[in-house]
Amino acid sequence: MTPERIAALVARWVRFYTRDLPTPVARRRIDEIDADLHDHIAHDRAHGMSERRIALSILSRMARGAAADASWRRQAGPRKGHAMKLLRALLAVLAIAIGVAAIAYGQADDAPGLGLLGFLFIGGAVVLGVRTFQRSR
Amino acid sequence: MLPLETEILETALSLRRSGHASFHGFGLARAMREQSGSRSLTGHGTLYKALSRLEESGLLTSRWEDAAAAEGRPRRRLYELTGQGAHVADQVRAGKAAGRSPRLASEPA
Asked: What gap in Å lies between CA A71 and CA B2, rounded to an integer?
């Protein structure tokens, strides 16, 4: 897990949730996050932070902002039922993946807080999945 | 106005008073972490959604950094407090200093 790989994951996530938005709106968000990721990696490296900690920090920022991304997406573009369901499903899968990774890293680092964060992500994903399922019925 | 939005305005005001009139997303996230004493930076989505709302409210304005100033790295979006934004930030700060809940009007009294 390198910072660049996690930054690429974030960039893909941004491109995913901005698709179908008007080009200037999508372009601005994509370029702004790209600059943020670049600045984040450069700053933390300059301060001697380990590659793994930088990657986790970026991953954590993406995960903690994912719900706001989805909310912003709803406000920025026309509501599209199928697209929103897909976005919610992807968000749930992403949250589960991050949750599992956080639990694994939490155990490896003996960091119970990180493990708890992982369980919260998985719990949140389950709630999101159930709500999406109920709304689709 | 959300607590994060008032925090952004207060941090922007601090930055302006220390000679940094404009700021970018990551720089703001760092400044907010330092001011709050938090260990983590604000999430991407949370931060940029709040900045977007503040800009729509007329409290911040933004522009792209000049390509020449970027020196090969991705161009930053630079934000600045508007006069109205500075006024609201002052109100928030004064409210906190007086030990009461700030009046979060987005318009000058």
From this structure: 15
Interface mutation vs chain B, best among A6, A36, A57, most B CBs within 10 Å:
A36
pLDDT in tens, B7-65: 999 999 999 999 999 999 999 999 999 999 988 999 999 999 999 999 999 999 999 99
ipTM of predicted complex: 0.87
Q: Which CATH class is domain B3-97?
A: mainly alpha
- Which residues does chain B have within 8 Å of residue A36's beta carbon, measured at their own beta carbons? 24-26, 29, 44
- Which of A28, A40, A30 is CA-nearest to residue A3? A40
Residues A53 and A100 in one domain: no
One-letter identity of residue B33: R
State the Rg of chain A over Cα: 16
pTM: 0.75
**Closest to B9 (Cα-Cα) out of B71, B102, B98:** B102
